[in-house]
Amino acid sequence: MMTAAVILKNKSLSVTIPRKIILEIFIKESRALSHASIENSISTIIDRATIYRTLQTFLESGIIHQIPTTNNVVLYALCQEECSIDHHHDEHVHFVCTACDTTICMEKIIVPKVKLPRGFKMKNAALIIKGTCDICKN
Amino acid sequence: MMTAAVILKNKSLSVTIPRKIILEIFIKESRALSHASIENSISTIIDRATIYRTLQTFLESGIIHQIPTTNNVVLYALCQEECSIDHHHDEHVHFVCTACDTTICMEKIIVPKVKLPRGFKMKNAALIIKGTCDICKN
DNA sequence: GTAACTGCAAAATATTTGCATCCTT
DNA sequence: AAGGATGCAAATATTTTGCAGTTAC
């Protein structure tokens, strides 16, 4: 189990209070977070601009990856393996539970390859599955 | 080839100037559009609020569907088959060309089914593939 | 004629930026 | 000590809403 400080150091990022707090939230919650949900989870006051900048930094260092959504809210989740800005290992399935509105990474399930038409070259893929999760099932 | 007016009538929507103009843009451009790109394609002045409301209406009537993105911009594209708000037939692949920044629907390629862990129930899926398109290939 | 739709204006929300100060290395 | 990060404030951008006037059916 890597601590926030260790992860930051591994990425050659300076270890600051806001970065540790935000990273610890990601470590604690095993689900995808939006800017807003992070802001809400923080009891301390971290400036909104700092949160934006921190998420951007984490993204560029490959600490987190983005998950596409359809509601103008970008979600972020911890990367499991080593990622970098140009090569994210985020080609696992993301599951969105429409009941509890939670998005989780299904690290174990990789995105199946599909055959593209001639001339198209794939760089990466994201598969978002919506439905109900194992807790909300009914 | 369906005209904008016919599509609107089929969905029991009243045929208004803004709706026709916006729908015609979708018909003409065979790619996914954002609110902003629609606003830019319009020479006539259609109020921004009207565009938002029209897209919402089209979405609810199943005329267009949303495509998830990671940049806080929701994309919309024409539905090919009959859709409704609760059952969209949008389970085809969406291809994002990172060179020309264009998103297109690959109607022919359906999203492969994946096996979910016990307790998870899938309702629908979206597969977004990023790469270079057949025009931008190099 | 009536219900629905549009345009306008304002409000609410979300994101970005400049800059002075503070913190990490 | 120096460079980078933060916090604050302001600027920008985006989206929503209320309402009066207009349009489609």
Topology of helices and strands:
The structure is a homodimer of 138-residue chains.
Chain A: H1 4-10, H2 17-28, E1 33-34, H3 35-41, H4 48-61, E2 64-67, E3 75-78, E4 92-97, E5 102-110, E6 121-132
Parallel strand pairs in A: 4-6
Antiparallel strand pairs in A: 1-3, 2-3, 4-5
The structure holds a DNA duplex (25 and 25 nucleotides).
Polypeptide structure, described:
Two copies of one chain form a homodimer. With 138 residues, chain A is an alpha+beta fold. Chain A has one domain (4-131): Orthogonal Bundle (Arc Repressor Mutant, subunit A). Helix content of chain A is 29%, strand content 27%. Chain A has four helices and six strands. Chain A has helices at residues 4-10, 17-28, 35-41, 48-61; strands at residues 33-34, 64-67, 75-78, 92-97, 102-110, 121-132. In chain A, strands 1-3-2 form a three-stranded antiparallel sheet. Chain A binds chain B through residues 66-74, 93, 95, 98, 106, 108-109, 111-112, 114-135, 137, and chain B through 66-74, 93, 95, 98, 106, 108-109, 111-112, 114-135, 137. Strand 6 (121-132) of chain A pairs antiparallel with strand 6 of chain B, so a sheet runs across the interface. Chain A binds a DNA duplex (25 and 25 nucleotides) through helix 2 and helix 4.
